[in-house]
């Protein structure tokens, strides 16, 4: 019962949440959708992956990408597990692009 | 001066067809000649909302393909003078809507009517593109709800880039019509308010149509709400919106169900 009451009193109105979510989303969509061009983050993602693949063979399953679009700033986190790279030793050079490592469209 | 108006939204089910019928009837009742053109090829419904579903012989595609002329395909409304309907085809697919064909039909309609109102299908595909292409004026129908607002934003972008006016570098007149608005829920903070939606989409407000059973009742009997229940809150909101389309400066209010003089006197001011 007490939780029921506290729920009622604590309940925040949802409209401001909707407004904020829309403002952030649309700020990004207006740049990216309209003219068919990618937005900066998608482009960064693609190019960073191209650079990494140029130097090491990357298993797509070992790449984690997190994206958080915010109002003030956004973060793009690319976490690549590079096999065989230890201190002092250079990584094995990338083998001529195995199928798996081919760039997937972002 | 004839004007081509597109009623569009991106999202489905927000009230485009209801709005096309109600605005068209209100403009016709005001003395102007109006034709409503259904662009929803394959899923036509404007005929049904207008109560003309049993009178459809030829349709827009027939006219485009030369199987019928315009005069044969136009259905005159029996209740309001100066109001006609050009139905969409139920059987053909939307590829039959050729750019040249649509341009020719719109040109011919411009010569005959003061207002050519195009009811756009949902989505951003060919039918929607064709419906908006020749527009001088756009009414963007939006529900105070996140997905509708997002889709409207996308449609506004298309209106500014892919229409004939935009390609000529001219300005297309855009108006926001908020439908299914519930003042009580907005006041409680559980529905996006008018200010929020206006703030996000930043185009001028044409009107606010309150959520009301009168709209459903009107479509049940096959009449625009401005004809079936002209004194109802949504009909008054649509009638005011039609007057604003004609350039009248009216304060935007949310009409309430008319319960008495008191309600009428204290209509809430909103924008």
From TrEMBL, chain A:
Pfam families: MinE (PF03776). Keywords: Cell cycle, Cell division. Residues 83-106 are annotated as: Disordered. Residues 97-106 have a biased composition (Basic and acidic residues). InterPro entries: MinE, MinE_sf. The keyword DNA damage does not apply. It comes from the Bacteria. One of its GO terms (biological process) is regulation of division septum assembly. Prevents the cell division inhibition by proteins MinC and MinD at internal division sites while permitting inhibition at polar sites. This ensures cell division at the proper site by restricting the formation of a division septum at the midpoint of the long axis of the cell. Belongs to the MinE family. This is Cell division topological specificity factor. It comes from Acetobacter tropicalis NBRC 101654.
UniProtKB/TrEMBL annotation, chain B:
GO terms for molecular function: ATP binding; ATP hydrolysis activity. The keyword Cell division applies. CDD domains: MinD (cd02036). ATP binds at residues 11-18. GO terms for biological process: division septum assembly; negative regulation of cell division. InterPro entries: CobQ/CobB/MinD/ParA_Nub-bd_dom, MinD, MinD_FleN, P-loop_NTPase, ParA/MinD_ATPase. Keywords: ATP-binding, Cell cycle, Cell division, Nucleotide-binding, Septation. One of its GO terms (cellular component) is cytoplasmic side of plasma membrane. Residues 5-225 form the CobQ/CobB/MinD/ParA nucleotide binding domain. Gene3D superfamilies: P-loop containing nucleotide triphosphate hydrolases (3.40.50.300). ATPase required for the correct placement of the division site. Cell division inhibitors MinC and MinD act in concert to form an inhibitor capable of blocking formation of the polar Z ring septums. Rapidly oscillates between the poles of the cell to destabilize FtsZ filaments that have formed before they mature into polar Z rings. Belongs to the ParA family. MinD subfamily. PANTHER family: SEPTUM SITE-DETERMINING PROTEIN MIND HOMOLOG, CHLOROPLASTIC, SEPTUM SITE-DETERMINING PROTEIN MIND HOMOLOG, CHLOROPLASTIC-RELATED. Interacts with MinC and FtsZ. This is Septum site-determining protein MinD. It comes from Acetobacter tropicalis. The gene is minD.
């Amino acid at each position: 019962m007490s939780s029921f009451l506290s729920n009622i009193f604590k309940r925040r109105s949802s409209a401001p949440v909707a407004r904020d979510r829309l403002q952030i989303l649309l700020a990004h969509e207006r740049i990216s959708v309209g003219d068919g061009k990618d937005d900066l983050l998608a482009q960064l993602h693609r190019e960073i992956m191209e650079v990494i693949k140029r130097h090491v063979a990357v298993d797509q399953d070992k790449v984690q990408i997190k994206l958080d679009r915010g109002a003030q700033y956004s973060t793009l986190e690319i976490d690549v597990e590079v096999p065989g790279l230890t201190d002092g030793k250079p990584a094995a050079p990338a083998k001529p692009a195995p199928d798996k490592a081919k760039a997937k469209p972002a | 001066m004839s004007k081509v108006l597109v009623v569009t939204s991106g999202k489905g089910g927000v009230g485009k067809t209801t709005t096309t019928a109600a605005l068209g009837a209100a403009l016709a009742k005001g003395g102007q000649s109006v034709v409503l053109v259904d662009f929803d090829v394959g899923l036509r419904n404007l005929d049904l909302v207008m109560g003309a579903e049993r009178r459809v012989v030829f349709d827009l595609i027939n006219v485009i393909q030369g199987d019928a002329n315009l005069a044969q395909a136009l259905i005159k409304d029996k209740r309001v003078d100066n109001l006609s309907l050009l139905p969409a085809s139920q059987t053909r697919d939307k590829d039959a809507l050729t750019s040249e064909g649509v341009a020719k039909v719109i040109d011919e309609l411009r010569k005959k009517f003061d207002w050519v109102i195009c009811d756009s299908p949902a989505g951003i595909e060919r039918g929607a593109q064709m419906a908006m292409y020749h527009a001088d004026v756009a009414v963007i129908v939006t529900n105070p709800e996140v997905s509708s607002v997002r889709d409207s934003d996308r449609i506004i972008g298309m209106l500014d880039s892919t229409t004939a006016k935009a390609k000529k570098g001219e300005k297309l007149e855009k108006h926001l019509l908020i439908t299914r608005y519930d003042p009580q829920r907005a006041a409680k903070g559980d529905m996006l308010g008018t200010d929020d939606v206006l703030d996000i989409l930043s185009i001028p407000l044409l009107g606010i149509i309150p959520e009301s059973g009168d709209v459903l009742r009107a479509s049940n009997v096959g009449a625009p709400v401005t004809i079936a229940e002209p004194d109802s809150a949504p009909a008054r909101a649509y009638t005011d919106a039609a007057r604003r389309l004609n350039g009248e400066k009216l304060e935007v209010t949310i009409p309430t169900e008319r319960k008495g003089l008191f309600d009428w006197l204290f209509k809430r001011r909103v924008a």
